[in-house]
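> call design_seq(struct)
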């Protein structure tokens, strides 16, 4: 299986690269900037900006694209990075005949952020492409130490039954990625992977 990460030089992308490589899956990443970490020096990088598809040149044949472009912190960019970038990824898949798109959405969160993710889901569901929509909670891991700061309080509030915190229940990024890779390789007909199933 040949996998293309769209925006794959970040937190989740690096974990996907690591696990896919360990499973001998062929993986490349498309991003504006190359990963500088020496552990990723042999991973194929396609330089490009998803908002400039005409300037992207893909020579390989990919079976699956995994969309990783997005933001949590910058509210002014929710529409562009969390929603419009997905429409661009769908165009890229169509142009290069990539049959499946995996999208990291959200199970919950603050209203504007969550709605930007749900709007992107609608783009995918209304398209003709095969898809897997992943709805994790807050992800944390060693590649982003700051992600640990909110883990304990959110887990505590989640156990108290507060719905907001239940929907953003923290999970290790490694566990989420393992579930995604297992789903696309072993259960390709699955369309949705929710927080409860990943737990």
């Amino acid at each position: 299986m040949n996998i293309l990460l769209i925006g794959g030089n970040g937190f989740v992308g690096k974990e996907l690269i690591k696990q896919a490589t360990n499973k001998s899956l062929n993986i490349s990443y498309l991003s504006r900037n190359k990963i500088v970490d020496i552990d990723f020096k042999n991973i194929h990088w396609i330089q490009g900006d998803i908002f400039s598809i005409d300037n992207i040149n893909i020579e390989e044949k990919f079976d699956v694209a995994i969309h990783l472009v997005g933001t949590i912190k910058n509210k002014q960019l929710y529409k562009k990075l969390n929603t419009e970038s997905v429409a661009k990824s769908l165009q890229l898949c169509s142009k290069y005949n990539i049959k499946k798109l995996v999208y990291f959405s959200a199970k919950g969160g603050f209203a504007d952020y969550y709605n930007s993710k749900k709007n992107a889901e609608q783009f995918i569901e209304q398209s003709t492409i095969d898809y897997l929509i992943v709805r994790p909670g807050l992800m944390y891991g060693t590649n982003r130490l700051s992600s640990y700061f909110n883990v304990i309080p959110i887990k505590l509030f989640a156990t108290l039954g507060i719905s907001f915190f239940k929907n953003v229940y923290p999970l290790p990024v490694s566990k989420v990625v393992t579930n995604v890779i297992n789903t696309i390789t072993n259960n390709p007909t699955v369309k949705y992977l929710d927080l409860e199933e990943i737990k």
